[in-house]
Structures are given as C-alpha cells and as structure tokens.
C-alpha cells in the first residue's frame, strides 16, 4: 500500500495539474477508503496545502489586494529585472511597443533606454516618462486620459479611445493573477482591465509579464482569457504541471 506521504505528494501534484480533486476519485486512484482520503485532505489543509470543499479540495489562491503601484515598486526587484531582461530580447528594431502600467515595465523601459534601442514606445504610465527624458533613439508616445493616482497612470474611456488609434507590434502587460485552470487573467481595477483589454485588441502580439507566484494569485476583475495572449514571461522555469497547462493554450513560455 502507498505510504501516506506519497499519497499527499500525488494529491498536491494532481491539484497543480487539475486545480481541484474529488474524494471519490482519489479513493479509486489510490485504492483506499474515502475516509482515508478525507483524513489526508484534512492534514493537507492544516498544513496550508489546499482548501477543503464539499466532496473534495481545491487549490489555495490568494488575493493580496496590493493596488498601489508605489507600494509594489521595490517588491521582488531581482525577479522583475530577470523578466525584463527576457522581454527586451524579443523587441526588434523599428517596432512599436506598448508598455502597460507595471513595475516590471519600469525595468524593461530602463533596458530599452540603456541599449539606445531604435523603437517607438507607447505607454500610459507616468513613471516611464522620466526614464526616457535623456538622449536616446527610442521615440516615446504618451497616452493620456483620466489620471489614476494608485496606478500612476491614465486609464478609462479617454485612454481606451486613444489606444484604438494604434496598432502595436508588441505589448507587454503586467497582471495580478493567472488561473491556469479557468484561463482567467485578473487585475484589481476595472478601468485598468478594460484598458489592458483594448491594448491586447490593438496588438499583433501580447505578452504577460509575471512572477511565477502570480500563477497562484487572483485579482478582483477578470479582464482577459489566457489564450488572448501570445505568451508569458516569468523570472524562472515553471513547474512541469504548469508547463503542461500553459502548452494547452498554445502560449509561448519565456
């Protein structure tokens, strides 16, 4: 008979792959009683590995409610720089690139400036104006509208109307949460979500910029589905289970 720890490891692996498990199915898979599986799930829940639901368990997903850009600038800085370094490598000379409101895009903008890249950068994030103030070949176009102070940028109907006039070769967008099982991509702010949605519609290719931790986070507003994007750029390799799920959507993984 399989040891308890082995069952626990396989239950977690199954959760990572499917997002949810049922007591009845696990009982059959492991050839043990349903009471045995319920005890396993109780132990795993106490250890913070899953959340019990009626008849089974689901993955734990977190909402950090960290809305203000200023609060996030210094967080996970090494990871953000690694993501930016990967992103800058797929930007070709002469292209028009949209950089959305994202602390990772601050790092990406710095790299574009430092490399003196011959590209057109379009953004609605105020912080990026300061980066491109010096002499460089990059051309900056700023999208205005109604100012959103927590986001440090412009969002909403006026901004969306301006974005509709463009056709971007590439767009790089930050996200709050990525649910690989439902395919939902979330943010905190409705106007932010609606603005991002228009950017995707106006882009030939769109990439999510996200630390791998965001694969288990959720925002409050679903603005897109994962297969609306071309790919996802993370700071490190995703797990085998996560890669299998991402591959089902046909996304590039960088």
From TrEMBL:
<dbReference type="GO" id="GO:0003700">
    <property type="term" value="F:DNA-binding transcription factor activity"/>
</dbReference>
<keyword id="KW-0238">DNA-binding</keyword>
<dbReference type="InterPro" id="IPR036390">
    <property type="entry name" value="WH_DNA-bd_sf"/>
</dbReference>
<dbReference type="InterPro" id="IPR037171">
    <property type="entry name" value="NagB/RpiA_transferase-like"/>
</dbReference>
<keyword id="KW-0805">Transcription regulation</keyword>
<feature type="domain" description="HTH deoR-type">
    <location>
        <begin position="4"/>
        <end position="59"/>
    </location>
</feature>
<dbReference type="InterPro" id="IPR001034">
    <property type="entry name" value="DeoR_HTH"/>
</dbReference>
<dbReference type="InterPro" id="IPR014036">
    <property type="entry name" value="DeoR-like_C"/>
</dbReference>
<dbReference type="Pfam" id="PF00455">
    <property type="entry name" value="DeoRC"/>
</dbReference>
<dbReference type="GO" id="GO:0003677">
    <property type="term" value="F:DNA binding"/>
</dbReference>
<protein>
    <submittedName>
        <fullName>DeoR/GlpR family DNA-binding transcription regulator</fullName>
    </submittedName>
</protein>
<keyword id="KW-0804">Transcription</keyword>
<dbReference type="Pfam" id="PF08220">
    <property type="entry name" value="HTH_DeoR"/>
</dbReference>
<dbReference type="InterPro" id="IPR050313">
    <property type="entry name" value="Carb_Metab_HTH_regulators"/>
</dbReference>
């Amino acid at each position: 008979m399989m040891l308890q720890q082995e069952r626990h490891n396989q239950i977690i692996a199954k959760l990572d792959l499917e997002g949810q498990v049922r007591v009845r199915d696990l009982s059959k898979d492991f050839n043990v009683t349903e009471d045995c599986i319920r005890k396993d799930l109780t132990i795993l829940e106490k250890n913070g590995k899953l959340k019990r639901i009626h008849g089974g368990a689901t993955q734990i997903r977190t909402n950090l409610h960290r809305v203000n850009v200023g609060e996030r600038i210094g967080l996970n800085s090494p990871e953000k720089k690694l993501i930016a370094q990967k992103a800058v490598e797929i930007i070709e000379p002469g292209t028009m690139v949209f950089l959305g409101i994202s602390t990772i895009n601050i790092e990406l903008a710095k790299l574009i400036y430092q490399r003196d890249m011959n590209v057109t950068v379009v953004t609605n994030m105020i912080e990026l104006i300061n980066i491109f103030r010096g002499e460089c070949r990059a051309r900056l176009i700023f999208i205005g509208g109604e100012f959103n102070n927590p986001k440090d940028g412009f969002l909403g109907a006026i901004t969306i109307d301006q974005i509709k006039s463009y056709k971007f070769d590439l767009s790089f967008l930050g996200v709050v949460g990525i649910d690989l099982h439902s395919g939902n991509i979330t943010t905190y702010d409705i106007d932010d979500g609606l603005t991002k949605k228009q950017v995707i519609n106006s882009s030939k290719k769109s990439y999510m910029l996200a630390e791998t931790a965001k694969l288990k986070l959720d925002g409050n507003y679903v603005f897109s589905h994962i297969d609306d994007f071309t790919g996802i750029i993370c700071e490190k390799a995703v797990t085998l289970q996560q890669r299998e799920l991402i591959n089902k959507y046909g996304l590039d993984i960088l």
